[in-house]
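Reviewer 2 asked us to include a model.

Predict the structure of this chain.
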Amino acid sequence: MTKSDEPNIEAKSRYNRIAPIYDLLEFPMEKLLAQEWRQRVWSRVESPVVLEVGVGTGKNIPYYPERSKITAVDLSVKMLKKAQARAGEEKEGKKLSLLQMDVQKLDFPENTFDTTVATFVFCSVSDPIQGLREINRVTKSEGEVLLLEHVRPDSWFLGNAFDLLNPVSVRLIGVNINRKTVKNVRAAGLEIKRVSNLTRGNIVKMITAKPGT
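Predicted model (structure tokens):
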């Protein structure tokens, strides 16, 4: 086992542990805001072959387009079991394959997917740039990448406050609240087409990108 594998094992263990109560923990934010954001992201997906990374308990499944074939991956087996249960409750006609997989080591050939989607994932990936590089690799050159992420606020005051609180957040729930995800997307070689700010303080962003070289 290498040092780079250790954070993945820790994250897998954490999400397996909290899977039974994960939806309950996020219920208020989900009902108030996140459902609308998820619908907004998935309304943009029109392509036939789609990858979702970090499917979690399957909160995006109700918004999957019926005409698309979706492959959804997650690090945690227990989160995937919750996603499978949710998929079973949805109406028939959605083509969905659920797989255990780490976004940092995607087991797909280059240029496999027309569209890749991730929602609130890269706050908890141990090496976010590596994960985004993998997305760049497996998304077709003419394809699209859609990310919904909470990030480090732009303002000096809030940004520094999030930096101070981040070690507490990581220790308690394994989530980094000060990730500079727009910068990380560029560092991974993706070409940003659009960034939409969805909240005051620019804490939640929808990032539209395409694969780069």
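The mean pLDDT is 90. Residues 22-42 form the longest helix (21 residues). We have added this to the supplementary material.
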